[in-house]
Amino acid sequence: MRKLLPVLVAVVLPALSAPHVEATTSPDLVWSDCPPPPANVPDDPRMRCATLEVPLDHRAPHGRTIEIAISKIATAEPGLRRGVLLHNGGGPGAPSLHLPAAYATLYPPEVLDRYDLIGFDPRGVGYSAPVTCGRTADQYPVDLYFPFPAPNGSIDRNAEFARELARDCLAHGGPVMPHVTTANTARDVDRVRIALGERKISYNSGSYGSYLGAVYATLFPDRTDRFVLDSNADPDRVWHEQFALWDHGMELRFRDIAAWLAERDATYHLGTTPAQVRQRYFDTVAELDANPAHHPAVGPITGNVLRAIAFAYSYHTALFPTLAEVWVYADQGGAAPEAPGSPAAPDPSPALNPAPAPDPSPAPGWPPVPADNVRASQLSVLCGDTRAPRDLDRYRREVAAHRALFPVTGGMGTNVWPCAFWHDPVERPVEVTDEGPANVLMVQTLRDPATPYLGALGLKRALGQRARLVTVDSGNHGAYDPSTPSCAVREANRFLETGVLPARDLFCAPDPAPPAGAPISPLVSTALPS
Question: Where in this protein does the record put region Disordered (predicted)?
Fold first, then answer.
């Protein structure tokens, strides 16, 4: 997969030409070589790619068009083949073209035998008419892009940053940006289904991808086959109220972090009890606010930068050593030793590099991807789906309340985003309903910090009897995770194989950990925020 958590003028693309072209049975698709995968993303020589022309504005189907990039790994056994299984990497803004190669390492044969695996870069993302805000990587500081208030609670700097970023996005986003929305991406998915010659489509995705799946299942209920939604967002909270859940969710997840560190006090020396670790966290944040540290990989670490790292690396227990390494370095002025039995801490810098530099050698025949495409496309969706609150005093009130109630994030979840200074959306958001077949399996961890459990309950309420909810007593972001096997993994695989939903909602603890090295859910590598 991508490096862990790459807290990673737009033009209508010309027709893409790719080498070694071969014909397909569909008149709409020509399969060819795929562009090279990003760093740390598995490559699979079976994967083939194509581009598909879709309307820029689906309300004007005969108007201007863009091209989206799609991929396929044909894994189904002819005698067992059911159809295609599509994936999205979340974010929003996560490139998803190479996801089939990742999921091919996760699925058991019972699933692989039944589906061809499909990926795609959503519109505005990666190789699909990529958008830009005209910025470089260092113009997206993580503690401002994720709007952590000042140590005294002021949001004035956040509002200034958000206003200027919105200005740049609207100036550089071109005609594509207003139409980079979840509803339009769902309509693109249906065009993919048609181009593949499939009557229905199956789906397994999470985080932001849960909302995309729910919107598709609402717009095209009769075209859904077997849908697995993981790490779920509440469609009635999109997006300001959904982000507000981060503050509560991170409080719950921090209990896991504190317990993990307390068990390893002999290594990290941050406290022998969870209460001591929690207090040490606040003491460290306060000290860094007054006297920032400098990490050789991360750079300056203020209190808010440590908060941002804690949030980013709360996504999976496998990332806790990275958080511990940075925290110890900032707190004690030296690198932390490796805890016995813990994986080595990876480079923490990706969490603070939300807009990685473009590939210096773009793939021949594919468009160059702007340096800030992850963030630009993310904002296009977040601000294009719904109209954000405009009243800065509302943000001030909500931040003050959440700072008191949920101090771990300091009120970040309720703070102001560029969406407060964006143009109005081109259409109203899709209202997710319970109208349609009962063919949705929701899987969710109880203490997910990025898509907290309350959001999953909201989506379950919206889908009603269309869905069953499987909950795992864990805090990882991503319940479909072979490195943390559970009833969620088993039920998802069983549902994709047989189409049988559980008779009722389920709750379970994770299974015993498998041997080290088991692949982690692709959700762990998705771009924040959701």
Answer: 336-371
pTM above the 0.90 mark? yes
Residue 116 appears among annotated catalytic residues: no
Residue 448 known to be catalytic: yes
Among the listed residues 98, 172, 295, 477, the single catalytic one is: 477
Best CA proximity match to 239, nearest among 137, 88, 93, 55: 93
Query: Residue 144 is which amino acid?
Result: L
pLDDT at 529: 56
From 202, 448, 486, 530, the catalytic residue: 448
Per-residue CA distances from 450 to 132, 194, 196 (Å): 25, 33, 33
User: Is the pLDDT at 22 greater than 50, yes or no?
Assistant: no
Cα angle value 478/479/484 (rounded, 5°): 105
Strand-strand pairing, 506-508 and 467-472: parallel
Structure tokens that stand for 186 in this block: 């769902």
Q: Of 207, 314, 380, 530, which one is the catalytic site residue?
A: 207
* pLDDT top residue among 346 and 263: 263
Compute CA distances 249 → 304, 402, 450, 477, whole Å.
Answer: 18, 12, 7, 11
3-state secondary structure of 414: helix
207 is catalytic: yes
- Environment class of residue 307 by beta-carbon count within 10 Å: exposed (0-12), middle (13-18) or buried (19+)? buried
